[in-house]
Design brief:
The protein is mainly alpha-helical. Helix content is 74%, strand content 0%.
Length: 341
């Protein structure tokens, strides 16, 4: 058994005899010998104690491959709503060590960012609950409004707090070093548009159009017109976009987003449905989440519940997600909406 070999290596590394280890755990030296020879294995309940004894993680006891550990960390982030602090620290230590060993591998830092954002989401959820309770108890607590807005990603109205200068600066420098990275242009232009830096957005769109001929070019052309106040021109460009890219599901979802942003909710729902209809499996659930939110805004809680139940079914059929936080989060939303009926 691999765990037996690992226990033997850890024991020898620390200069501990089988008798000393056996005495610590209240066992016989023969029991330790059987573990190390692979004829027996420690009870699962002993694993935390053994890992603490050797100063290692349980994963290290099993000598898991790096790829397996990376997969387990990703699954932990996806499937667990509130992460265990000990699991987080173990994952963080492993990822930082792997990143140091493999300086050209960006995956460890990508997972670190994913995990830290997951923790930030946890903290924001709790912060929102605390701030709401504070305001229920005392409506005159001014700072509680600020904390609630920050926790829920709202707008505070202060330019210095809401602008994307730092992120824009990063992506401008990134594009200067990686001028053919299409995704970077998309992220940069969205930040510029949200800050109404339209001339800069036009500049980068001109460059982007030279390396991409997808629906995203007219999409951003329309976005720039929209932010400049020419909504009719924007809708005209987006309508032509759908004509030119009828089989591109993301184009239909994009049109749904634009319709939702200008409160044309019925149009938005039809575009989201079209995008979902032409999407090939495995399908993403974004359309259904958008439809559920629109239905709730409209007061149609039954419709919102139906969209979320459809999301659960799609997650199960296309992604085999039936347990864990991916499914549990949707179930919580359904229960919340049922209480509003």
């Amino acid at each position: 058994m691999e765990i037996g070999n690992q226990i033997k290596q850890l024991r020898l590394r620390r200069g501990i005899t089988q008798e000393e280890m056996a005495k610590h755990f209240g066992l016989t030296a023969q029991a330790i010998s059987k573990w190390e020879r692979g004829t027996a294995a420690p009870d699962i309940a002993m694993l935390p104690g053994i890992s603490a004894y050797f100063g290692c993680t349980i994963d290290e006891l099993f000598s898991l491959s790096d790829d397996t550990r990376l997969e387990r960390i990703q699954n932990m982030i996806w499937d667990v709503r509130y992460l265990n602090p000990a699991d987080v620290e173990n994952a963080r230590q492993f990822l930082l060590e792997k990143a140091q060993r493999e300086p050209d591998n960006g995956r460890p830092h990508e997972l670190l960012a994913d995990m830290e954002n997951h923790l930030a989401k946890e903290h924001h959820e709790r912060a929102a609950e605390y701030a709401m309770e504070a305001l229920r108890r005392n409506p005159n607590l001014r700072e509680a409004h600020a904390e609630l807005t920050e926790a829920m990603g709202g707008k505070c109205g202060d330019w210095n707090a809401d602008n994307h200068h730092a992120l824009i600066t990063f992506y401008k420098d990134y594009i200067a070093r990686h001028p053919d990275c299409r995704n970077a242009y998309v992220w940069l232009m969205d930040q510029l548009l949200d800050d109404d830096r339209l001339e800069e957005a036009r500049h980068y769109l001109h460059t982007y159009a030279q390396i991409d001929n997808s629906f995203r070019v007219p999409m951003f052309e329309g976005k720039i017109l929209w932010r400049s106040g020419d909504r009719e021109g924007a809708v005209s460009i987006w309508t032509q976009m759908l004509h030119d890219f009828p089989g591109e599901w993301a184009a239909w979802l994009t049109m749904g987003d634009f319709m939702a942003r200008c409160a044309r909710y019925e149009d938005a729902k039809s575009y989201y449905r079209k995008g979902l209809e032409i999407m090939k499996p495995p399908r993403y659930v974004d359309s259904l989440e958008c439809i559920a939110q629109i239905c709730e805004i409209q007061g149609d809680y039954t419709g919102a519940i139906a969209a979320l139940e459809e999301e659960l079914a799609l997650d199960a059929s296309d992604w085999n997600f039936t347990t864990g936080e991916t499914a549990d989060a949707v179930r919580r939303e359904i229960e919340r909406l049922k209480k509003m009926l």
